[in-house]
């Protein structure tokens, strides 16, 4: 067998690797799509919470709940084999966005002077 041809064990291994790579990437794409949809649903709900807080003059942030959620998410991450530090950073990023949205909603709800 000539090493210059595209057939043989090395070519078969490369083709299998390419097919596995394609399958893994398709799964990653599916998970990414699911994450986007889940985040969209989460933010719809947190927008409703923001309106409820604004209507009842409640603060945009709830540090005690946030602390409980961080502990809960870290434990879930650990049980799932996900780095708890990453999970905490991800949650804190989301919470910062939620608080920002709640502050915007509260500003919109305030009567103009």
UniProtKB/TrEMBL annotation:
Enzyme Commission no: 5.4.99.5
UniProt keyword annotation of Nucleotide-binding present: no
An example Gene Ontology molecular-function term: chorismate mutase activity
Keyword Isomerase among UniProt keywords: yes
Enzyme class, spelled out: isomerase
PROSITE patterns hit by this protein: CHORISMATE_MUT_2
Keywords carried by this UniProt record: Isomerase
GO BP, sorted A to Z: chorismate metabolic process; salicylic acid biosynthetic process
SUPFAM superfamilies given in the database record: Chorismate mutase II (SSF48600)
Domain Chorismate mutase: 15-106
Cross-referenced InterPro entries: Chorismate_II_sf (IPR036263), Chorismate_mutase-related (IPR051331), CM_bact (IPR010951), CM_dom_sf (IPR036979), CM_II_prokaryot (IPR002701)
Protein name: Chorismate mutase
Species the sequence originates in: Helcobacillus massiliensis
Lineage start: Bacteria, Bacillati, Actinomycetota, Actinomycetes, Micrococcales
């Amino acid at each position: 067998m000539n090493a210059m041809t595209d057939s043989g064990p090395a070519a078969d291994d490369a083709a299998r690797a390419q097919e596995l790579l394609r399958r893994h990437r398709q799964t990653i794409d599916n998970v990414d799509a699911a994450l986007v949809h889940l985040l969209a649903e989460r933010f719809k709900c947190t927008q409703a919470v923001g309106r409820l807080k604004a209507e009842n003059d409640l603060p945009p942030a709830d540090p005690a709940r946030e602390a409980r959620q961080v502990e809960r998410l870290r434990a879930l991450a650990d049980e799932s084999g996900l780095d708890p530090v990453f999970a905490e950073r991800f949650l804190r990023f989301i919470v910062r966005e939620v608080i920002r949205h709640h502050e915007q909603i509260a500003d919109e709800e305030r009567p103009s002077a």
